[in-house]
Amino acid sequence: MVRTCLIWAALVVALLAPIVAAAFSPLLQWREGIYIGSGFAGIIGMALILVQQLLAIGKLPGLPPARSRRIHRVTGVLLVLAVMGHVAGLWITSPPDVIDVLLFRSPTPFAVWGAIAMWAVFAAALVAALRKRLPIRLQNWRRLHVALTIAVAGGTVLHALQIQGTMEPVTKWILGLLILLAMSRILRTKGLWPRLPFGNTSHRTHR
Asked: Domains (ranges, CATH) in the chain?
């Protein structure tokens, strides 16, 4: 029970610390309200990515698998909405810049990684929504979904770390590191390729 409480408390701190720290950024006084809202939508989206990963690998104690899957779907929808809010706010403040980002014409590297993460979020959500309609095997569907979520996580972290904005550096790096650690865990547990039969003494090779 104590371990469960500590894990949940650590998760709450990891998720809220970047948001609270950004709220006290001195750069906010020079920004418009819509731009500030867009920025916080991006921070919330980054936090939701960590939650999504932990739900996928079953690392949130006290949640049975069925409930974890339901929450995973809900947070997936929230992540899509957060990304849309982030992009919509930037569009209102500067449409030409957003068009350049969406078309991968922006000269700034962080914008490219942001665009990759955004399209990967939409693709992952679409693949999840069409899971039963896509003419592919379940195993291949899982590989595709995992590959897209890795693009989401990696692109988001690179996007955020390269921006010098309202996010406080230390909490941003910690959140990014946690996302990358969870991503590596997904690669080990879920995998993009079939598991090798290591340790299975009953395995036989048929020629």
From this structure: 2-188 (1.20.120)
